Amino acid sequence: MNRLACLLRFLCGGLFVIAGALKALDPAHFAADIDHYHLLPYFAVAPLALYLPWLEMICGFATMAGAARRGALVLLLGLTVVFTLAVASAWLRGLDITCGCFGAASAVPLSFALVRNIVFGVVLLWLVRREGRPVPPL
């Protein structure tokens, strides 16, 4: 089971590093993706588009390296929950947008992104729980 946890930590961490890097390369496109959800005021979109990719990359590296791993996993789980709620909201409102998860490379429909994020969230929750302390209530 320890090897499985290690493999999943590297996969999750690597996925967030790649996703963050793709968004950091084109923050204007990522800002437009965020704005398409119609959930945030416009003045909040640009700072989020600049900050969020770097948070994802730092947490992804920490998840793989082991430094502050549990804290990084908790942050990634929180980001995944918030993003899953945003995707579900957009899907329920019938918005015809892509998820924006991987910057300009995002071309999956919201329904696929929703299922993928739920699975990803379950994996992250399992990894957080494996770190030894109970997960704080959401």
Q: Give the oligomeric state.
A: single chain
Global mean pLDDT: 88
Rg is 15 Å
Separate helix tally: 5
Shape: globular
Low-confidence stretches: none
Largest sheet geometry: none
Tell me the structural class: mainly alpha
Distance between the termini: 26 Å
Report the order of strands and helices.
Answer: HHHHH
Q: How many domains make up the coordinates?
A: 1
Q: What is the strand content? A: under 5%
The tally of strands reads 0
Helix content: over 70%
Account of the protein in words:
The chain is mainly α. The protein has one domain (2-130). 75% of the residues lie in helices and 0% in strands. The protein is built from 5 helices and no strands. The chain has helices at 2-25, 27-36, 42-65, 69-92, 110-130. Helix 1 crosses helix 5 and helix 3 (42-65) crosses helix 4 (69-92). The model has no long low-confidence stretch (mean pLDDT 88).
Would you kindly provide a brief summary of this structure?
This protein is an all-alpha fold.
Keywords for this structure?
138 residues, mainly alpha
Question: What is the fold's blueprint, element by element?
Answer:
Blueprint: H1 2-25, H2 27-36, H3 42-65, H4 69-92, H5 110-130
